Amino acid sequence: MAMKKTLTLAGSDSSGGAGIQADLKTFQELGVYGMNALTSIVTMDPHNGWSHDVYPIDVDVVEKQLNTILSVKIDAMKTGMLGSVEIIELGARKIDEFNLDKVVIDPVMVCKGEDEVLQPENTDAMRELLLPRATITTPNLFEAGQLAQTGRIKTIDGMKDAAVKIHELGAKTVVIKGGKALDHEKAIDLFYDGKEFTLLEEKKISTTYNHGAGCSFAAAITANLANGKSVEESVAAAKDFVAAAIAHGWKLNEYVGPVMHGAFNKFGGIE
Questions:
Q1: CA triple 111-115-120, angle to 5 deg
Q2: Read out DSSP for 111-157?
Q3: What average pLDDT does the structure give for the chain?
Q4: pLDDT tens sequence across 255-267
Q5: What residues contact 260, with CB distance under 8 A and at least 6 apart?
Q6: In whole angstroms, what is the distance from residue 122 CA to residue 269 CA?
Q7: pLDDT tens digits, residue range 121-137?
Q8: How many CA atoms lie within 13 A of 221 on its CB side?
Q9: Element (H, E) at 22
Q10: CA neighbor of 95 nearest in space, from 77, 68, 108, 83
């Protein structure tokens, strides 16, 4: 029986914890065949506090990668770090050209550990070109505030307000990742389908070893959609997958600790 096929259009994390590395590990754990079109390479300077440098891939090379992958039928795709407005435009065009209907938009705007938006002009392009093509979009609190133009989100009501605004921009469904950043006793994500809000709650995990959690969450949704789950089922299952990955995160070096992508399959969900 042929495996379902998935695409990630995203950047490479040279440290291996996030980006396409996280996506492909997640796809493998969830039983789908993952392919990647690389948009950028991110390196970290071990002699300068692990500061990040981003090296975009030429848009023509990105298109050739996409043409390679899309020459076979894929069952679901996701986006991650997109290096330029031109690549965002390319992604939107390919979604239309190949009639892709299970599209997860993870609107990556900053590298973990960094607090500066990588390319501010990309936010408008994502808002205009990618959200209307999204089966679901998966912003964190910062990204949701940027997309919805609400500013910093601190409460569940703020998450709901942003989710409505993002849905109005064209995304069919929205999940805002509150996680441990929200001032709440539990890790809260908010799912919105245009009609109803669903709170997804999990106990907070006290750890800093969560590098790649957001990428892995979006990738898990993508794999679950490819495997035939509904959007809401895909989100709930992805939250369980990532909670286990965070719970078993580990120290890579003095700067970062990645999640363990194999944790859910090896140890099961967290109690």
A1: 80
A2: -TT--S-S-HHHHHHIIIIIGGG-SEE--BHHHHHHHHT-----SHH
A3: 93
A4: 999 999 999 999 9
A5: 244, 245, 248, 249, 250
A6: 36
A7: 889 999 999 999 999 99
A8: 28
A9: helix 19-29
A10: 77
